[in-house]
Amino acid sequence: MFKKIKLLGALLAIILFAVSGKADAAPNWNTNTIQVTGMGVANPAMARTPAHASMMARRAAVADAYRQLAEAVNGVQVDAETTVEQMILTSDVVKTRISAVIKGAQIISEGELSGGGYSVTMELPLFGGNGGLAETVIERPTYVEPFPVPAPDYRPPVIERPSYSGYTGLIVDCRGLGRLNPVMSPVIKNISGQKIYGHKNLDYDRIIVEGMATYAQDMSQAARAGSNPLIVRAIALEDHNANPVLSMDDSDLVLYENNQSHFLENIAVVFLY
Questions:
Q1: Which residue, among 16, 39, 36, 49, has the nearest Cα to 111 in the 3D structure?
Q2: Which of the residue ranges 11-15, 36-40, 91-95, 174-178 would you say has the lowest mean pLDDT?
Q3: Facing residues of 79 across strands?
Q4: Fewer CB under 10 Å: which end of the chain, C or N?
């Protein structure tokens, strides 16, 4: 049996040639997807016809795309302390599930390359609930924890409010604090270390589909926070630069306004980085 497997591997190596190098694909944290492009060519000595060469080149391109996806997925940061690769190393169940997720990636474009060869572009959603990565790597909490409340002596600032409703979302501006490290399960904390936003405060089934936040480089990418977002500036990044920290005043403001508009429960959160 071992000899047969070894022979098959050698045969595939002869027939199929992936032509890209080490995968450098990274998640797009604004769209919450991973996209890779695999490329391959056929061994001319093995191709019987041009059609056969194209078929072998496509097979090589698909194999290359899967390889790149596996490398990219392994490097995804689940939270501040854990990568997907670390979870795979500690659980065969997680390893099997993630393998199935990768195999379920969608081909979004493909075609022959000029001069020979084939190109296949695949996309894998981090979230989505049906083939996304989140359900495999984010733990379902035993119960939904309530959001904390503002300090008893907190008095909100006097501001003009839209007549129709309150704030539609939250934008946490993390720019200028060093590179924010995007993660699938971020936490917002206040300066005292209290967590004011995390996956245990939210509807698990909803975050598996929609994610907990998007990461944007400017306001044009912050549509998730709606037309009237509350904007606060982080004062620090903690936990390997994954989790933004707010001042006590801003933390209390976020919690107070959320009590009016429930934008945190609606996971209408954007991080500027």
A1: 39
A2: 11-15
A3: none
A4: N
Kindly report the backbone phi and psi dihedral angles of residue 198, in degrees, each rounded to the nearest multiple of 5, phi listed first: -165, 170
Does residue 247 contact residue 193 with C-beta atoms inside 8 Å? no
Average of per-residue pLDDT across 159-166: 61
**What is the identity of the amino acid at 105?**
A
**In the block, residue with structure tokens 């195999």:** 103
Kindly tell me if the per-residue pLDDT of 45 is higher than 70: no
Q: What burial letters (b/e) apply to 99-127, b meaning 16+ CB within 10 Å? A: eebbeebeeeebeeeeeebbbbbbbbbbb
Structure tokens at 163: 């007549």
Which of 11-25, 67-81, 130-144, 209-223 shows the lowest per-residue confidence on average (mean pLDDT)? 11-25
List, in sequence order, every residue forming a beta bridge with 118; answer none if it has no partner. 40, 112
**CB atoms near residue 186 (< 10 Å):** 25
Strands (E), 68-204: 106-112, 118-125, 169-173, 188-190, 195-197
